[in-house]
Amino acid sequence: MEHPQDEVEETVPEPKYTPITYKHMSKQVAQKMALKGIKVIAIDFDKTLVTLHTGGAWRQDHARLAEFVRPCFKWLLPAAMECGMHVCVVTYSMQLGLIHDVLRASLEKCDCSRIILRGNSKDWAQIQGVAMLGKQQHIASVITEIFNKRHVIVHPREILLMDDDADNVEIAISFGHKAFEVKEDVNLESMYDFVLNDL
């Protein structure tokens, strides 16, 4: 049986900026998102937060996987949290402990304990009345936790899904969420263009 990490696939390289430029651009994107009413960023993991697909069966350590975290998200997610947004990872993977460790290794000066994780695991209950489509169950569970633990009400239009799967994006939009399809060449400039013109 082949494993995704045995042969790492080629991806389109993201433009390299200086840390100051990354920080400035990510802050601009996050501020624009907040101004447009986004309260929750729900981000997929495989082929979105990281450039490869683990297949939910990553066998190497988290440090190796952290090398594939997209630089734009390393900067955007902490910036979004600084702007008061809630961040969650919504994934079909069951390796949530691994994902947590990858986040801690990748997001410097960020309280990763505040990032909510939802995967195809048994540690959260199905939300009654929510369709079993795309990432809707994951998102509904996150919104329920935010309300119960942080006492914040989140409306559908205040959620932004970032996902490489076009079907998940379309489903999210059909449920009243905002959604951004993550392409191989995604970077802070393409995010800023989306936020400015399409969000």
Describe the structure.
The protein has 199 residues and is an alpha/beta fold. It is built from 8 helices and 5 strands. The chain has a 5-stranded parallel β-sheet with strand order 3-2-1-4-5, with helices on both faces. The longest helix has 17 residues, at 19-35.
Total helical elements: 8
Number of strands: 5
Structural class by sheet pairing and helices: alpha/beta
Main sheet record? 5 strands, parallel
Proportion in helices? 40-55%
Query: What letter string, H or E per element, gives the SSE order?
Result: HEHHHEHEHEHEH
Distance between the termini: 42 Å
What is the overall shape?
globular
For the largest beta sheet, what order do the strands appear in spatially? 3-2-1-4-5
Q: Uncertain runs with pLDDT below 50, 5 residues or more?
A: none
Give me the Rg, rounded.
Answer: 16 Å
Q: Name the quaternary structure.
A: single chain
Q: Indicate the mean pLDDT.
A: 91
Proportion of beta-strand residues: 5-15%
Kindly summarize this structure in a few lines.
Helices cover 42% and strands 11% of the residues.
Describe the protein's topology.
Layout: H1 19-35, E1 40-43, H2 45-49, H3 62-66, H4 71-82, E2 86-90, H5 96-106, E3 116-118, H6 136-150, E4 159-163, H7 166-174, E5 178-181, H8 188-197
Parallel strand pairs: 1-2, 1-4, 2-3, 4-5
Output the keywords:
five-stranded parallel β-sheet; globular; 5 strands; alpha/beta
